[in-house]
Amino acid sequence: MKAMLFETFGPAADVLQSREMDKPTPGPGQVLVKVETSGVNPSDTKKRLGSFPDLLDKGYVIPHSDGAGIIEAVGDGVSTARVGERVWIYNAQFERRFGTAAEYVAVDSNHAPSLPEAADFETGACLGIPVMTAHRCVFADGDVRDQTVLVTGGAGRVGHYAIQWAALAGARVIATASNEEDEAACRDAGAEIVINHRNDDWPQQLLSTTGGTRVDRVIDVEFGANLEKVLDVIRTSGVIATYSSSADMQPKLPFYRMMYMDLTIHLVIVYAMPDSAKKQAIDDIDAALSANKLKHRIAKVFPLSACAEAHALIESGKTRGCVVLRCQES
């Protein structure tokens, strides 16, 4: 099979390389998936740059956690009825070296849920990190029906799905965006109000639109950079669920201000979600896809051989939708 891999850390164009190698064999509890699409996420580019220094200690890495394809074979303990099943893949390269940037991947059967016929393989490549992260951020602390939920960076990969999950659950959704195109995307996803976060006074603008009523829950894309302003709009005993803090990776907390507000801070990453949360996310994703209730933004699709270009696009910060590789090039 063909696979993309890296043996050293560094810029995508310098270290990502194509290689022919043996197709993997599924072990006990695993399925072998013929990978149609591979999703590229910021965490994949960070790993390639060395965010986990020991990642290469045992050899090369085939990157990417997310993908979609068709089960071609199964290992011991997995029903042969799964052969031929359309699936989406998550956590493929978590705590191991072999991800979805290849024509085939062997993964734990539980990490390859069925992909409803209503969804194509490009959509399937978006379901792992973006959709599961958004689901966890919205629902980790209970039902949001009738709550007001603020999603910062609502046009981003996770934010776009967070708006949808919250709106589908009966919440009133407010989003922040930085331009008219992103504002339109947020409204299309289900946001009732969209505020431009480029304006320094966006918290005041938000409260003006709500008549001074503060939000119950914040799904935040930039925890450190946004915290002070988020504290201006969140209610006492509210929840901040955050999945990134790239601009300020070591934020300082105004502890006493937050303590006197009785706030909950929930840090979210798909890798560490409890199994019960993963199962609920998978069940809800299946139901939403089957009913065609989720909207998707595919920014660009590259061939597998252009993996470095896909990584560069993610790192540019100039794309809002999901970036996908098409893995079957022949």
Written account of the structure:
This protein is of the alpha/beta class and 330 residues long. It folds into 2 domains: 2-126 and 296-326, Medium-chain alcohol dehydrogenases, catalytic domain (Quinone Oxidoreductase, Chain A, domain 1); 132-271, Alpha-Beta Complex (Quinone Oxidoreductase, Chain A, domain 1), CATH 3.90.180.10. It contains 11 helices and 14 strands. The protein has helices spanning 12-15, 42-49, 121-124, 127-139, 157-168, 180-189, 202-209, 223-231, 255-259, 275-290, 307-316; strands at 2-5, 17-20, 30-40, 66-74, 86-89, 104-108, 148-151, 172-177, 193-196, 215-220, 234-242, 264-267, 298-303, 322-326. Strands 3, 4, 5, 6, 13 and 14 form a 6-stranded mixed β-sheet that branches. Strands 9-8-7-10-11-12 form a 6-stranded parallel β-sheet, with helices on both faces. Helix 9 links the parallel strand 11 and strand 12 (264-267).
Short characterization:
This protein has 330 residues and is α/β, with parallel strands linked by helices.
Beta percentage is 15-25%
Annotation field: number of helices: 11
- Total domain count: 2
Helix content: 25-40%
The CATH class of the largest domain: Alpha Beta
How many beta-strand elements? 14
User: Which radius of gyration do the C-alpha atoms yield?
Assistant: 20 Å
Structural class: alpha/beta
Order of helices and strands: EHEEHEEEHHEHEHEHEHEHEHEHE
Q: Unreliable stretches, pLDDT < 50, 5 or more residues?
A: none
User: CATH H-level name of the largest domain... which superfamily?
Assistant: Medium-chain alcohol dehydrogenases, catalytic domain
CATH topology of the largest domain: Quinone Oxidoreductase, Chain A, domain 1
Query: Termini separation (Å)?
Result: 11 Å
- Judging by the overall fold, what is the CATH architecture of the largest domain? Alpha-Beta Complex
> What is the mean pLDDT?
97
The largest sheet, given as strand count, sense and whether it forms a barrel, is:
6 strands, mixed
Globally, the shape reads globular
